[in-house]
Amino acid sequence: MADRFSGPVVLLLDSRGTGGIESHVLLLAKSLKRDGINPLVLFMKKYNQPHPMEDSLKSLEIDFEYLDGGLGQLRNKLRTAALVHTHGYKAGLSGRIAGKLAGIPVVSTFHNGDLGQGKMRIYTLLDRLTSFLSANIAVSEEIGSKLPFNRKVIPNFVDMPEPGVQSSGQAIGFVGRLSHEKGPDIFIELAKRVPSQPFIIFGDGPMRSELEAKAPDNVCFRGMTRNMEQYWPQLGLLSITSRDEGLPLVALEAMSYGIPVLASQVGGLPQLINKEENGWLAPAEDLEAFCRHIEAWRQTDAGQRKTMAESCITTVSSHYSCEALVPSILAIYRQALH
């Protein structure tokens, strides 16, 4: 496969922080390099400080560069690339235009189905409307259904931990941005209803001050973490209380460590979670249903938790690992190059 590429595969981002998209790009770059393909991570612009991905990219010896935010420099950079793969709405818009001007194929992954508000809503609509200029990947059926032009659904994926690495933690965790669509306020309400159970929040965002002000004593805020690997062993259950979602990487990461997931019935989560086999589903914002499932988890014995952990790991390794899904992305690259 590697000898088909006349230049690097550019992974294009407009980003200043870390989240699901950045984790996806880092893992994709790592997988491409492992397959003998040269990835180049391009940031559309360098903001006030180095991007949080820098250390990880350097440690993996993956090339990266910052651009000036303009189409001219991006077009010139892409002229030596084999293709450009965009991630996020701003990178999608810029990458499609610059890619066509540079004469190379464009692939775009759509990670989010939420239109957003204000300027973000306009950008998101333009991102979808210009998707006829690229080969498109959606990370869930729900996101794909909102694209007006050609798309293929390829779920998010993760690297599996070393065999035998599993969590034996007891806390219920929330991992993600502290913003309305992610439902951290719902997580706080759950903690209030189960005061004897430890709850941990990993993440930061605009709602943090509000959440800390009303959080009960059994909630611990850990802030933003660049790498959850050292923290997964503290958790026994991951709670995803999102009001809107695609297929969150944190669900896959947790399950790869044998941690069941309790999640809102949104996005690609119903395709991932099988009731009482690897987790539970509840209608979005339904506190009563979430509490019932938390109690069901608390009532499981050691044998039941071991069986669920094995089911979680098997689900991810079979259907959501790099080995299972990156070949589908390479097939799209191959089609685009032709």
Report a brief summary of the structure.
This protein has helices at residues 20-34, 54-59, 71-78, 89-102, 118-129, 141-144, 184-193, 208-214, 249-256, 269-272, 287-298, 302-319, 322-337; strands at residues 9-13, 39-43, 63-66, 83-87, 106-110, 135-138, 152-153, 171-175, 199-202, 219-223, 235-240, 261-264, 279-282.
List the helices and strands and how they pair.
Blueprint: E1 9-13, H1 20-34, E2 39-43, H2 54-59, E3 63-66, H3 71-78, E4 83-87, H4 89-102, E5 106-110, H5 118-129, E6 135-138, H6 141-144, E7 152-153, E8 171-175, H7 184-193, E9 199-202, H8 208-214, E10 219-223, E11 235-240, H9 249-256, E12 261-264, H10 269-272, E13 279-282, H11 287-298, H12 302-319, H13 322-337
Parallel strand pairs: 1-2, 1-4, 2-3, 4-5, 5-6, 6-7, 8-9, 8-11, 9-10, 11-12, 12-13
Helix pairs in contact: 3-4, 4-5, 9-12
What labels would you give this structure?
six-stranded parallel sheet, single chain, seven-stranded parallel sheet, 338 residues, 2 domains, Rossmann fold, 13 strands, alpha/beta, 17% strand
Strand content: 15-25%
The structural domain count equals: 2
Summed up, the helix count is 13
Coarse structural class: alpha/beta
CATH class group of the largest domain: Alpha Beta
CATH topology of the largest domain: the name is Rossmann fold
| Proportion of residues in helical segments | 25-40%
Global Rg: 20 Å
Ends distance: 13 Å
**Strand/helix succession:** EHEHEHEHEHEHEEHEHEEHEHEHHH
Biggest β-sheet, characterized? Answer: 7 strands, parallel
The residue ranges in which pLDDT falls below 50 over 5 or more consecutive positions are none
Strand arrangement, major sheet: 3-2-1-4-5-6-7
Q: Could you say which overall geometry the principal axes of the C-alpha atoms support?
A: globular
Give the total of beta strands. Answer: 13
What is the architecture of the largest domain at the second tier of CATH? 3-Layer(aba) Sandwich
Q: Taking all residues together, what is the mean pLDDT?
A: 92
Query: Please, what is the CATH homologous superfamily of the largest domain?
Result: Glycogen Phosphorylase B
